[in-house]
Specification:
The protein has about 150 residues and is of the alpha+beta class. Helices cover about 30% and strands about 25% of the residues.
Length: about 150
């Protein structure tokens, strides 16, 4: 616990139920429209053990989350890979060590699940916290939206 915030793994149904307002806040924070989330695909991934949902709560209030996709790498079939799917922490909780602790907890839970390598995407403003946790830049990702 840090400043009253606890971190724990939660179920997809619990996160989906409690997280609507936070997901809206996440989209607003990024200046984007709310994504068209495939609830069934997430629920299935969680049921099959391919999705970890770490939540940050201040009492009962959901204040952050870190979703991790877990999968076997087809190129290295003996390795489980952890890929950050989405993460968010309310702005008023970004001061101090709360964000650092949330990411550290997510990495710990992935390690406990047998994950060997982790991929986390983030902008330059997060580089300091990533490096502090031992994450290093590995590749530059280029994106392009392909419209029809």
């Amino acid at each position: 616990m840090i400043n009253g915030v606890t971190f724990q793994l939660e179920s997809w149904p619990s996160f989906w139920r409690d997280g609507k307002a936070l997901r809206d806040e996440h989209a607003k924070d990024k200046g984007e429209a709310m994504p068209d989330v495939n609830e069934l695909q997430y629920a299935t991934a969680w049921l099959e053990g391919h999705l970890q949902i770490l939540t940050a709560r201040d009492g009962l209030k959901l204040v952050g989350y870190f979703l991790s996709a877990l999968y076997v790498d087809p190129h290295h079939s003996t390795e489980i890979i952890g890929k950050e799917d989405a993460y968010f922490l309310l702005p008023e909780y970004r001061k101090g060590l709360t964000g650092y602790k949330m990411l550290k907890e997510a990495l710990g839970y992935m390690a406990a699940a047998g994950v060997k390598r982790v991929f986390v995407e983030g902008q330059e403003d997060k580089a300091k916290i990533f490096k502090r946790l031992g994450l290093e830049p590995s590749t530059i990702v280029y994106t392009k939206e392909l419209s029809q």
